[in-house]
């Protein structure tokens, strides 16, 4: 095979490439500011091909949002599986909390999640965001056995970490106020 011979991707592989480009582009620019031609450029395909695959920018954004929510659920399931099977709700929530290291390392995931909330004024996007957020809340309850109060605290802490990640104040150069909040997030209540 010569250097000029290109390996052709299957339609499934190309769709996956477009979806990865969409997650990155939407995470960076949000729903309203991201154009399908930018996603096409990042994926190395034509803009009409993106539309042929996903039909509308809205449908592509929803697909990207589902990708992110699927990953969030996968991270929580993996974190819970690493804990003791008969862990108390508090210990199970602590295990799920370990998943936030994954989220903080993959800032695009959290950025797109936030952009999903911001785009919820669009009825179709809002319906999907509300459904998927509710699914995450229910998954946390199911995996941990925690009551609604402990679940709310866990979700609230997760949202704070998400916002802090978006502001880029979760790293080693974080301001004192951010370090204080992050340290408090990692403390367990007695």
Automatic annotation (TrEMBL):
Gene3D superfamilies: Tetracycline Repressor, domain 2 (1.10.357.10). InterPro entries: Homeodomain-like_sf (IPR009057), HTH-type_TetR-like_transc_reg (IPR050109), HTH_TetR (IPR001647). Keywords: DNA-binding, Transcription, Transcription regulation. Residues 12-72 form the HTH tetR-type domain. It holds the Pfam family TetR_N. GO terms for molecular function: DNA-binding transcription factor activity; transcription cis-regulatory region binding. PANTHER family: HTH-TYPE TRANSCRIPTIONAL REGULATOR BETI (PTHR30055:SF234), HTH-TYPE TRANSCRIPTIONAL REGULATOR RUTR (PTHR30055). This is TetR family transcriptional regulator. It comes from Nocardia tenerifensis. The lineage of its organism: Bacteria, Bacillati, Actinomycetota, Actinomycetes, Mycobacteriales.
């Amino acid at each position: 095979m010569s250097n000029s011979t290109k390996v052709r991707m299957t339609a499934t592989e190309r769709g996956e490439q477009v979806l990865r480009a969409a997650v990155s582009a939407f995470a960076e620019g949000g729903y309203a500011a991201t154009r399908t031609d930018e996603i096409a450029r990042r994926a190395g395909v034509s803009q009409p091909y993106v539309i042929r695959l996903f039909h509308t920018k809205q449908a592509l954004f929803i697909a990207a949002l589902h990708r992110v929510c699927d990953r969030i659920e996968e991270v929580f399931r993996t974190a819970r599986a690493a804990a003791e099977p008969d862990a108390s709700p508090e210990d199970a929530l602590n295990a799920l909390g370990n998943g936030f290291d994954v989220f903080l390392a993959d800032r695009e995931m959290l950025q797109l999640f936030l952009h999903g909330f911001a785009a919820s004024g669009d009825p179709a996007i809002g319906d999907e965001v509300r459904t998927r957020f509710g699914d995450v809340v229910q998954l946390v309850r199911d995996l941990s056995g925690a009551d609604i109060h402990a679940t709310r605290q866990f979700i609230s802490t997760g949202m704070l970490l998400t916002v802090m990640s978006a502001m880029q104040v979760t790293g080693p150069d974080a301001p004192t106020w951010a370090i204080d909040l992050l340290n408090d997030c990692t403390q367990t209540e007695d």
